[in-house]
Amino acid sequence: MMFGLIQLPWWGYLVVLFVLAQLTIISVTIYLHRCQAHRALDLHPIASHFFRFWLWLTTGMETKKWTAIHRKHHAKVETEEDPHSPQVKGIWKVVLEGAELYRKEARNKETMERYGQGTPEDWIERHVYEKHSAMGITLMLIIDIVLFGTMGLTIWALQMVTIPFFAAGVVNGLGHYVGYRNFECPDASRNLIPIALFLGGEELHNNHHTYGTSAKFSVKWWEVDLGWFLIRMMQMVGLAKPKRTPPKPSVHEGKTSIDIDTLKAILTHRFVVMARYSGDVILPVFREERLRASEAGKAVLRRIRKLLVREQSLVDVNAQKRLANALAEYRSLNVVYQFRLKLQNIWVKSTASQSELLEALQEWCHQAEASGIHALREFVNHLKGYVSARV
Fold it and tell me: Residue 119 gets which letter from DSSP?
């Protein structure tokens, strides 16, 4: 066995590997993802260049290519043009061959030209990081072997699979296939179980797709976003400046009318509004219907529970038929479900004027109050309290 300059117990090498791998993941989430792809924060040149250099050493990825591919993913999400959608290409294709899908799309000149704008084009990017992308990972191999001897080769090999496995496979694959959803955004993104110490907050994928330009990925108090924690630490020493975070609704309980200010606030917080509608209206009525249902009816209701709150465009034809058949049997549930669709339809009217949208919202509230369903009336009272955030 060849020994390096640094000799450690077996667990010491695991710690080194963990720290090095985490530094790579943090570089991806803060620099490539949040800063470059989404412009959600500004980085000091010192921080920005450190991340670029480290990614050159540990991944060989070029800023422009990664940024362009990710922007295209958001623009074409869950379509045939999405570079890595498991809904289109299959879950195992993305999990096992995510890195190859990345390399394939990186050869698409149209993608680079259209989605790669605004990334670094300085001398070192053009003459070192792009021209000699393989040199960095070779240099990393030499450094690992010199420092850790034979174990350095193992450390290097595991470093090299960190991003292909966790980012290309787990986030791009499982993040659009399994997990929970805080918001019904129009794609299949999911939040994975809290594993922030491995993915730097990238596991909060549904939150990110809902608020794509936010520098912060967590929205629930119990969700851990390590990337955001480090951004805040960097902000304290002047190395980072967040531009946007998920908007928080402002509600005045004493407000009793639907006006233009209400409309603006609801449009801004529409995903929060729909999440609240699911929790405060759909699910209570669902539970009431289930209590009254027969054993056979309870089984039917269990099969449609998730469909009641799912984004309609994500429900396939067979599931839609199953849902329609069940709703025909349960009047109250059908009423609140139809009101859910009508509320969503208000803000998809792209050609409607502000006054027309306000009129549609007021009419929706009037009909909801007249429905005779307590949960709907209470929701309308809550909705009236929405106000635009004051700067």
Answer: S
Of 219, 242, 265, the last residue of a domain is 242
Do 184 and 222 reside in the same domain of the chain? Answer: yes
Tokens of 277: 């509608």
| Cβ neighbourhood burial of 344 (10 Å; 0-12, 13-18, 19+) | middle
Number of domains forming the structure of the chain: 2
CA–CA gap between residue 182 and residue 346 (Å, rounded): 21
Question: Where does a domain end: 175, 208, 242?
Answer: 242
**d(C-alpha 48, C-alpha 122), whole Å:** 13
H or E element in which residue 104 lies: helix 91-106
Cα–Cα dist 357/345, whole Å: 10
Are 170 and 49 members of one domain? yes
Q: What is the pLDDT of residues 350-382, one digit of tens each?
A: 678 999 999 999 999 999 999 999 999 999 999
Half-sphere exposure in the Cβ direction for 304 (13 Å, CA): 28
Q: What is the pLDDT of residues 104-128, one digit of tens each?
A: 999 999 999 999 999 999 999 999 9
- CA angle at 200 for the pair 111 and 194, rounded to the nearest 5°: 115
Q: Note whether 203 and 73 are same-domain residues.
A: yes
* pLDDT tens digits along 4-34: 899 999 999 999 999 999 999 999 999 999 9
Residues 18 and 98 in one domain: yes
**How many CB atoms sit inside 10 A of residue 259's CB?**
13
Asked if 339 and 225 sit in the same domain, the reply is: no
Burial class (CB in 10 A: 0-12, 13-18, 19+), 126: exposed
